[in-house]
Design brief:
Layout: H1 2-7, H2 16-27, H3 34-58, H4 64-76, E1 81-82, H5 84-91, H6 95-107, E2 111-116, E3 119-127, H7 129-149, H8 155-173
Antiparallel strand pairs: 1-3, 2-3
Helix pairs in contact: 3-7, 4-7
């Protein structure tokens, strides 16, 4: 099958997932590979998306996890503070991983930790002025980068893709 495509120069229109599927069909024509057309492409896109987002965030000396914490605090609105438990629920990580992120952000003077004024046993994490300034710039650039990644799709295609991905995600989360 793949030889046909190479001989007729159709191969150049293929993406990497088409090539993988064609090779499987040559050696195992009995395999049902239609799921790879979706899952394989999502996995490949995740690699490219993550790489591009990391490149963008590097200019702010942030990784994706640190960005997520700053963004969660910013989305909360004034006074830009959350308990570690609330942050953990918003960024979906373990408490140990969150502590490491908060430590790094605190060392960079982007957040502070203090006693919760409503519960002396608790702690709140607050965005500093420096953190606020950084996340304001970083989130603007982050969203622009996301838009660049979707530039090959028109508005209707984006909407359809968003709906389908949401449906897939909800099925996994439930």
């Amino acid at each position: 099958m793949l030889d046909f495509y190479w001989k007729h120069k159709i191969y150049m229109a293929f993406d990497q997932i088409d090539r993988i599927i064609a090779l499987w069909h040559e050696v195992r024509p009995d395999l049902e590979t239609s799921s790879t057309e979706v899952v394989g492409r999502i996995a490949r896109l995740e690699y490219f998306i993550t790489r591009r987002l990391l490149q963008n965030l590097a200019q702010y000396q942030l990784n994706i996890g640190e960005f997520d914490v700053l963004a969660a605090l910013r989305r909360k609105g004034p006074p830009y503070q959350l308990s570690p438990g609330m942050l953990q629920n918003m960024v979906l990580i373990s408490s140990g991983a969150l502590t490491n992120r908060i430590n790094r952000l605190e060392d960079a003077d982007l957040v502070t930790r203090s006693i919760d004024p409503n519960d002396r046993r608790g702690v709140v994490v607050t965005l500093t002025d420096k953190g606020y300034t950084l996340i304001e710039e970083a989130v603007t650039q982050h969203l622009a980068t996301e838009a660049e990644l979707l530039a090959g799709l028109n508005d209707d295609e984006r909407s359809t893709l968003a709906g389908l991905l949401k449906k897939m995600l909800q099925a996994q989360e439930n």
